[in-house]
Amino acid sequence: MRLASGYAPRALIPLVIVLGATGARAQSERWLLTRFAEHEVAVEIALERDRSGKTWLVGTYTPSRATFHLYGKDLPKTGIHGVARPTLLEVVSSASIRPVGPLAADRPTIDLHVAALGSTFPVYPEGAVTLRLPVTLTARDSATAELSVTYMACSDRTCLAPVIDRRIVVRIPDLAALAP
Known about the structure:
The protein is mostly beta strands. 12% of the residues lie in helices and 45% in strands. Strands 1, 2, 3, 6, 7 and 10 form a 6-stranded antiparallel β-sheet that branches. A 3-stranded antiparallel β-sheet has the order 5-11-13, with no helix packed on it.
């Protein structure tokens, strides 16, 4: 090891970074449940368990157009005066997964005033948004869940058709393998 030249310590840096990343990953787990794209928005739904052992149903919504935004999760389901739709991830039915808290977004909404409609809408900034729903799991050998997603993507000039209450049946991974 030639410490005077400085080459040996630099060679160890990538190893430390890899080991550090591996250690963090072992503490947090993620299982992809499904992904699809509809009306120019890619949706990925996964189950995650964080370092503290809390389990989350996670949905990431990514508009395909860079200047498009999604509406806030707290917008009424029918919009404001029938305009717009909230971004939602809901458990419709399942014997193996149950929501235990409110849906949370990784980004705060901003107010978008549409003068032509005389209304203000809560929207996420342009780009992707991730919603997280805390859940509990019940031991089942072959577990499924029926989920519902709703969203609508718009720019400052146009809106795409909404996806309203799209039902998706997903298989919940073997819960024995999920034990913390």
